[in-house]
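The following block was generated as part of the benchmark described in Methods. Ligand: zinc ion.
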Amino acid sequence: MGSEPLPNTSMSATIDFESDGVQHGFLQLPYSSDRSAWGSVMIPICQIKNGHGPTALLTGGNHGDEYEGPTSLLKLANCLDVNKVQGRVIIVPMMNQPAFEAGSRTSPIDAGNMNRAFPGHPYGTLTERIADYFSRVLVPMCDYALDIHSGGKTLDIIPFAAAHRLHNKTQEQACMTGALLFGAPYTVLMVEIDPTQLYDTAVENQGKIFVTTELRGGGTTTPATMAIADRGVQNFLKYTGIIAGDPELPQVTQLLDMQDECCYHVSHDQGVLELKVALGAQVRQGDLIARIHNHKRTGAPACQYYAAMDGIVLGRRHTPLTEIGDTIVVLASVLGDATD
Ligand SMILES: [Zn+2]
């Protein structure tokens, strides 16, 4: 017996959020298309609940071309032992299911970028309706939320868990502790290029403990990134107290800070990108970090890009063909090491 839809949402769940046990079902959103006149978008959801305790909401596939989150959460949904749970774990491995099916960052149905669609709208586009259901139904149920991202097809990013600077410093500290205990090689106090319509912001604005990640990218996974994701998910559940045990931490996690938008180095040219620094490399302000070569003709000098700050290369554009406005390099300053 599924939960009743809210009066002003067309989305509903086929599982009952109040029942104990393991439930595999769907978030169902009617979608009438040429292929199926009375069809629905069906987003897989799993709940594993045992008695009273906190609720953790674990999500992946917010962007459809990032694979560590969906892979790790599909595995978790199939193996987490309900008897080892105290409280409730809600798992949505692919938030933007249509985008995931298409292998693209955004939805093929409405071009919706899930992480630019929050808080959403009950009568908006399909992506906005999914966002609205999260904002008004799923997020209010949770105490802790983990959203697993990677760089997708166009970015490659050092593997990190992150929290944001928040007005509520108690909440910020709890989020930062969660990020540290996720146990990635890097932990970042993160500044977003535009936080206004992020899922992150919507969750944080509801006072929840929120952790996000970036775990490499390029539109694939590696054994190393999958190991970080799998361990991080277990560590996060241990942090919430929903499963017992101490988080398994790496010997060192490097603490990084992104103080302002200067971290983002944006292209003012069009051409083929040649990175002069590797992911994770240390750079000094003024170092040459990239060249962009005009591919429309020969004989044009390359455009040079220099580091605006000291730091390490947190992220890079993965796709060489570059347009004006693309982020080509992201730097972060080093705060130090946190040792186990
Ligand atoms: Zn993402």
